[in-house]
Amino acid sequence: MTITRHSPTAHAAYHDLLRLLLDDRTSDIRGTPTRVVRNGRVYWYDSFRVGTDVRKTYIGEETPELLARIDRHRELRAEVEARASERARLVRILRAERFLGHDAATGSLLAAMATVGVFRLGGTLVGTQAFRLYEGELGLRYRFDDLAQTGDIDIASFERLSLALEDRTEPTVEQVLADFAFDPVPTLDRRPAWRWRQSKGGALVEFLTPAFGDEGVRPLAALGVSAQALHHLNYLIAGPIQAAVLYRSGVLVQIPRPERFAIHKLIVAARREARDRIKAEKDRRQARFLISALAEDRPYDLRDAYRDALGRGPKWQERIATTLGQMPDVAELLA
């Protein structure tokens, strides 16, 4: 298939916007950056005093980039207003370059979730809301047929990470959803609700988590919500990346790596085919689009993600093969 791309100027503007949003996250440090080691992984927290209590707010897992920002956090705090102005300018450039924006309802909800810490605390956008953000990461132009428009939001997180962080959103995610007129959708078996539907407009927010056994409902401690556990999701959300939502002066969120998203779509398309052919076709369309682009731009990332999935057992191999049997052009790219 033919891949159309944004200009180099637009691609550079997007990544500048993303860098400034990451700088903003670190400039919020109020106290002393504190290093914590848990299960061999290193996490950083902002430790500050409130009255006689010492509180810790999670900053992020240690990376060279995060360490560099922590070293500059006082400098970054002094540049908040200048960054806000520059972010607004970059968003105007991206809109002029015909980047996809978000409608006010979706953009404001994502902004509210980012403000209370959903994405900082491990929440990862999945589904179509994530797919549309690869436009900036990969510099791709979407056509109308490439993108199913939806106001639904799917957020996934690891249950163990959510518990290990020992931090929570403030205010709660439930309060944010209530402010936007979302109500929990009751489950037939009286398990905790993991889906929330908006009373006006009918938009849906779903919380998901990887299943390492049965696909039941699990708590996400950091987000203060319950989530539906699903197989294969651990592959999708491992090692996520940051992305910028074009709403107001930009919103920082977290999404899966594009190569993992593409291969995961091959798997879920096979699972959905029997019960929802429309969604299965959407999965195949998104997989084809991303795999075609990644085969040109990031062939080794795509190869490694494909081999990783195939190496996870016969069921993974079977589901991927089932979908590729309907997509010989994509099978050829992966071969």
Record field, number of beta strands:
12
Terminal CA distance reads: 16 Å
Quaternary status: single chain
**Residue fraction in strands:** 15-25%
For the record, the count of structural domains works out to: 2
The stretches of 5 or more residues where confidence is low (pLDDT under 50) are none
Specify Rg, calculated over alpha carbons: 20 Å
Secondary-structure element order, N to C: HEEEHHHHEHHEHHEEEEEHEEHHHHH
Structural class: alpha+beta
Helix content percent band:
40-55%
Number of helices: 15
Q: How would you sum up the global shape?
A: globular
Mean pLDDT: 92
Protein name: Nucleotidyltransferase-like protein
Domain DUF6788: 29-66
InterPro entries: DUF6788 (IPR046738), NTP_transf_8 (IPR022550), NTP_transf_8_dom (IPR058575)
Domain Nucleotidyltransferase-like: 106-310
Structure description:
- With 335 residues, this protein is of the alpha+beta class.
- It folds into 2 domains: 8-256, no CATH class; 257-335.
- It has helices at 8-27, 64-71, 73-78, 80-96, 104-116, 128-132, 134-138, 159-164, 173-179, 233-237, 258-272, 277-297, 299-310, 314-324, 328-334, and strands spanning 32-38, 41-50, 53-61, 124-126, 153-156, 182-184, 195-198, 204-210, 217-220, 225-230, 241-245, 251-255.
- Strands 4, 5, 6, 7, 8, 9 and 10 form a 7-stranded mixed beta sheet that branches.
- Helix 11 packs across helix 14 (314-324) and helix 12 crosses helix 13.
- It is globular.
- It starts with 7 loop residues before the first helix and ends with a helix.
- The mean pLDDT is 92.
- It comes from Rhabdonatronobacter sediminivivens.
- Residues 106-310 form the Nucleotidyltransferase-like domain.
- This is Nucleotidyltransferase-like protein.
- InterPro entries: DUF6788, NTP_transf_8, NTP_transf_8_dom.
- Residues 29-66 form the DUF6788 domain.
